[in-house]
Amino acid sequence: MKHNAGMKSLNASQIATLLQGRNLVNPRVVVSGNQAIPWQLLNVLDETLPEYRINALNAPKGLPRRDGVTYETSFVGAGMRGSGRLVYTPARLSMVPLLFGTTRAPDVLLLHTSAPRNGKVSLGVEVNILPAAIEAAQKRGALILAQANSRMPYTFGDGEYDVDVFDGVLEVDEFLPALPPREAPAAGSTDARGDSAAQIGALVAGRIRDGATMQLGIGEVPDAVLLGLTRLKNLGVWSEMFSDGVLALDAAGALDPSRKIISSFAFGSQALYDWIHENDRIVMLRTEKTNDPAQIAQQPGMTSVNTALQIDLFGQANASRIGARIFSGFGGQTDFIVGASHAPGGQAIMALRSWHPKAQVSTIVGMLGEPTTSFQPTAVVTEQGVAEIFGYDEKRQAAMLIEHAAHPNAREHLWYEARRLGLT
């Protein structure tokens, strides 16, 4: 890796010495989250500090799990889920950056960046809430460390920084975690879950027209939706994250080449990372912009597609908790439902299977027994059909959910619940 003027390139031992010199006592360590954890930097810190608080969004498995390490987050990932040392701070994703200037001020930042390019590095596939963390750290003189990886894509936008921003840089050459490319199952598959995903995807895609702006996540249902969008033209992308589905849309000629692809983080295959690298069609912005409902509302035909664990007959969705225990968090669901609902020609779609195959329970319920994550989508889509929600009175909403979205095995009980709740 070629060194750049102003870059403080250090080895692991020197990074440890730098940490020790700060005399840190149980510091808050903000780390690049999702699939961009700077593992080598984190390992050095873990071996150096007896105790610390690690703050990361949607952290994957592999985080240190020992006495002295506390987890903090506003969106729980597999690496923190179920831990007795988890401290969860509820916040919509658009508002998480505000925490760094108030109740969650950072003492140390561990960032995963690209290799230097003309005196700058990029936060690559994970911009997200990190610019706000960097600004908060600079204001209070916190330690800012980078793991500069020659394999991290260089992306343009809010994640570009001069190398002299960092107090120390650990240079590495390692592949990012990647998903193998996959295709959504076709309708008629012998796999029931795959078949239902394909059915949901086809129903959602059928509601979308040429020129729409898309927000989609990752998983079987979003992949199936994207597969159905390849027939369209002049689509835009304004999303907090994207994956290989966007690559497929581009290959199919479904994207408007004159519109920038706007996002805040990405996770997918190595092919996706290769495509992202130095691609000026892609602009990675900070969360305060991508998830600002007012900016989302300005996108033509803005269509958000989200999912949930449960939706009740009042149109309320639980996407965060199981048995009152936090499973994930608000994320950007509320931001995008509000923004898309206000956009010209916009719609906010909740897409989910009608039945939990493992728990053997309906995902459409009478009334949530868990805290609400979001409410008032445009429509709810399951493999059973489409329940129109917005603009209808509460009794009609409930009837649509029962007749068009609920699993047949649950409908009799749901009609009972509707009568009990005064929705008939």
From TrEMBL:
Annotated GO MF terms: hydrolase activity
Location of the Acetyl-CoA hydrolase/transferase C-terminal domain: 268-417
Alphabetical keyword list: Hydrolase
Pfam families: AcetylCoA_hyd_C
InterPro entries cross-referenced by the UniProt entry: AcetylCoA_hyd_C, AcetylCoA_hyd_C_sf, ActCoA_hydro, NagB/RpiA_transferase-like
Keyword Hydrolase annotated: yes
Protein name according to UniProt: Acyl-CoA hydrolase
The organism of origin for this protein: Deinococcus enclensis
Taxonomic lineage of the native organism: Bacteria, Thermotogati, Deinococcota, Deinococci, Deinococcales
